[in-house]
Amino acid sequence: MNQTIKKDFLWIYRAMKTSRYFEEKMEKAYLEGKQPVFNIGAGPVLGEMHLSNGQEPAAASMIVHLTKNDTVTATHRPHHQAIAKGVDLKKMAAEIYGKKTGLSKGKGGHMHLFDPNVKFSCGGIVAAGMPHAVGAALANKKRENDWVAVAFIGDGAANTGAFHESLNLAALWKLPFIVVVEDNSWGISVAKKDSTSVPYNDVRAKAYGIKGYLVKDNDPIEMYKVSKEAVERARRGEGPSIIEIETYRFLGHFQGDPELYRNKGEAPSLREKDPIKRLKQYLLKEKLATESEIKSIDEEVYKKVDTAYEFAIHSEYPEPTEALEDVFC
Amino acid sequence: METTKQKIKKLTGSKAMIQALEQEMNRDSNIFIMGEDVGKYGGIFGSTTGLYDKFGPERVMDTPISETGFIGAAIGAAAEGLRPVVELMFVDFHGVVMDQIYNHMAKIHYMSGGSVKLPIVLLTAVGGGYSDAAQHSQTLYASFGHLPGLKVVAPTFPSDIKGMLISAIRDENPVIFMFHKTLQGLGWMDQLEASLGPVPEEAYTIPLNKAKVVREGTDVTIVGVQMMTVEALKAAEQLSKQGVEAEVIDLRSIKPIDKETILNSIAKTNRLVVVDEDYFSYGITAEISAIVASEGFHHLKAPVVRLAVPDVPIPYSRVLEKHVIPSSQNIMDAVESLLSS
Lengths: 329, 341
What we know:
The complex is a heterodimer. Chain A has one domain: Thiamin diphosphate (ThDP)-binding fold, Pyr/PP domains (Rossmann fold, 3-Layer(aba) Sandwich). By secondary structure, chain A is an alpha/beta fold. Chain A has 11 helices and 9 strands. In chain A, strands 2-3-1-4-5-9-8 form a 7-stranded mixed β-sheet, sandwiched between helices. In chain A, strands 6-7 form a two-stranded antiparallel ribbon. Helices cover about 45% and strands about 10% of the residues of chain A. Chain A has helices at about 1-30, 55-65, 80-85, 90-95, 130-145, 160-170, 205-210, 220-235, 265-270, 275-285, 290-315, and strands at about 70-75, 115, 120, 150-155, 175-185, 185, 190, 210-215, 240-245. Chain B folds into 2 domains: about 10-200, Rossmann fold, CATH 3.40.50; about 210-340, 3-Layer(aba) Sandwich (Rossmann fold), CATH 3.40.50. Helix content of chain B is about 35%, strand content about 20%. Chain B is globular. Chain B starts with 7 loop residues before the first strand and ends with a helix. Chains A and B meet through loops of A and helix 3 and helix 11 of B. Chain B: It comes from Tenacibaculum adriaticum. Chain B: InterPro entries: THDP-binding (IPR029061), Transketo_C/PFOR_II (IPR009014), Transketolase-like_Pyr-bd (IPR005475), Transketolase_C (IPR033248). Chain B: This is Pyruvate dehydrogenase E1 component beta subunit. Chain B: One of its GO terms (molecular function) is oxidoreductase activity.
């Protein structure tokens, strides 16, 4: 048991660290060509950029329980989920750089990452991935396998019709479906308390007769335990669950967000509770890992991410006329 | 424009919108705004900046991401006599709420035999050109223009933005008011001359059914809307250096469309290029070509040229996006080949 825990927690640590380092590099890469005057359309990395720094436990501590056969649908803030699901990091970086070697040959960009090899997709419309995950879960049930489908959404998405319709379907058909609500307290500038009629979305499970879980304070270990139970229940055919995790958005909604709507002290105080540091301390305290083991994971992560960025930066752009391809099969 | 002797200031598209909303809200207490991030944030594309502080949360309401809910609620509130101005951030996001828009907002006046009025303004940001990819870069002018019962406007310049927004608010019908992100004059996007222009300080109206000749010419007519008007003007300047005088029409109104201005222009120029940031098939270029084929065919010396996004979703990568959105260069090339044919 201890060996499994050790293996899983180190996996979670590695996934979170990879996402964090990938995004810290992205934060810098995104600003290239956008200084001194910020222009969203300038530089090598373009368009809106939604980073997930701080939200890593929501993805890593759930996806550790999944295999390649399980489906994940994700959000407009998708890097931590994609990385944990094992999306090809080189191709993902290249996609974000708009290169021919990217996952979608430069057509998708950071909000539209698709890697069917690991059953990962995401999109730019709030809650839209939820019914897709319901459909994947329906396919699993029809085929009588024990695969599950997990939809990641933000807390703002829990107020859409798609959220409620998806839950009703998943409950009605008793599907192997889980929705992870990443509650980062904000829907762009609107605080959760000003948008959501209940303090926590786990209670909404009651309305659909399904299981609801709440993970407080961005805790990667609690998220691990709760997700394990939800995934095992889903695999056993015991139906869907909602897991809401209180998580942290260290950065703005998108890069360039002036964040005038939130207290200046909020992000720094969240950073003090950095979940990656907390997990590291836990691993050391519980003697699940040594400093040198962690250091070697860190070094592997840096190398892997650096290699992915090198690949992206040195890849070719598509030919302009490739824009006309792929509309139909 | 009902201009008398009054103060005129240079404003951005965004500031022109805000001024229109503020003046109208001061005039009529039935007007209120709701939408995502329209309150403290002031609208993601600067449509409501400062209004939350001036009018408070009762009249500038931040909503949850419950589009069917709040846009549907605008219909109910309008039927009760209020005058809601609702914003849905990106036009691309309307997919989730189209039932409320095309089955209800657009049809209730008709279905009720004219007994129910819905004076709603639906604000939404349109357009690409900054690599925001397929779900955040569309214009969808034609998708809305296709539906009976909706007025659809898409002004380009700050003075038109203000005057048409005031008209939209005062109109008794639902009006889809599309503003182009790049023409808002926002500090974090491309800075365009067109996004800053003289705007009279007092409230004034501009009709919702009139196109505008923004450059006179004799050799060819170019019809555009929003960024395509800007590109057309750029092309016209270059063409002028080669001795070709293009007349540029800023459509401004998608529905109803101003046939007269277009037909009068081609009666003079005998040649037409229509340029659109929306998709090619069944779009503005098709509509205008059909109007001209039916009602102005005898004026034409050459076939109409249509430039639009070639029936592909808007791609992310800059090189790909540039390939599909028409540019001033594409327009110049089209005019040159049209004149040599």
